[in-house]
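Hi,

I'm pasting everything inline rather than attaching a file, because the server keeps stripping attachments. The sequence lines come first, and each chain or strand is labelled.
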Amino acid sequence: MYGREDGSGTRTAFEEIVGVEGACVYTNEYGSTGDVIGNVAGNENAIGYASLSAVNDTVTAVKVNGIAPSEATVKDGSYTIQRPFLMVTKKGVELSEAAQAFLDFATSAEAAEYIAAAGAVYPN
Amino acid sequence: MQLIFTLCGLVAVGFVLLISVYLIISGLPAIREIGLGRFLFGKTWAVGQNQYGILPLILTSIYGTAGAVVIGVPIGFFTAVFLAKVAPKWLANVIRPAVSLLAGIPSVVYGLVGMCVLVPALRNWLNLPAGDSLLAAIIVLAIMILPNIISLSETALEAVSKEYEEASLALGATKLETYFRVSAPAAKSGIAAAVVLGIGRAIGEAMAIMMVAGNVANMPSLTKSVRFLTTGISIELNYSQDGSLQRQALFSIGLVLFLFIMLINAFLNLVLKRDKEN
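And the predicted assembly:
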């Protein structure tokens, strides 16, 4: 069982969704998603978790409840191990023009293709 | 002119002071909150369960360094004797640059080779589930401290005055007896300094062992995944939130590591000073 270090967003999300928060004992812990994938690819006994966008053909993606992970199954919610990425800004502070413009762009339909190109799923 | 030299000299002192003060200031709050005993002797490091015990990390660092010394010092010492006394000139001229090259290899490269070659090899030989282990880290560290030990011990051995060795040979001792009974004891403090420097390098190494040790804060066991003091800091620093207890505890680990290294340096100075007085 390969996983991420304590405090990592991937680890927190995985353990929360699966309902094993703080209860996991890992064989190895790695500091990055790439490390997890690389080491799972290099060891036939290993299993781990990583973001869909980082998964490549050196590893096999596991089905959850019979559903294989893909952009479509993440979008319609049938692949249940998924988490949102949030845009956060400082509380009580007016956004600068540039920041506001970036936020508008990032949430516009125009950004969807870039998000898809990065391997993540654009929200409905 | 003298002012410039003095200022340059003070820069190093200034940075040491700055780092010490910073580490103490940022390392103490977490220790105070967790409690010194529970921090140093707690057996579980689990941020999610609010458990911050670094005993596994401390023991791993000590065992890992000791293991590296046990493997690295004999090999390094014998190589030094070979280079200083036994080897024909041409062979020494091949080995010496190879040793200094070994010293120049960046630690991340040691880690990479360890991860791609050593870890799978251990997994197959010992039939382990993963191969990332204290043993892998010890082997990598032993190789990393070799150059320090070899070059310092060699210098010390070469500094032994010829008369000692000639007197020993004249009394009928064989060459080997002379090297080990006369030259080595005469070079004792230089060799001790080499070992202590090797220890310093091993205990402070992070990058290479992070790639082969598996990084789970288990109590140390040769074939299991372990976490060192150094890797404990580097692996969790990225995602620990600024100002959180986790981040503060990482600084506290840094403080503990710093104290370890100070102790080793103090010991080194003691060894060297005693030698000078003799």
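The longest strand of chain B covers residues 45-46.

If the labels don't parse on your end, tell me and I'll reformat.
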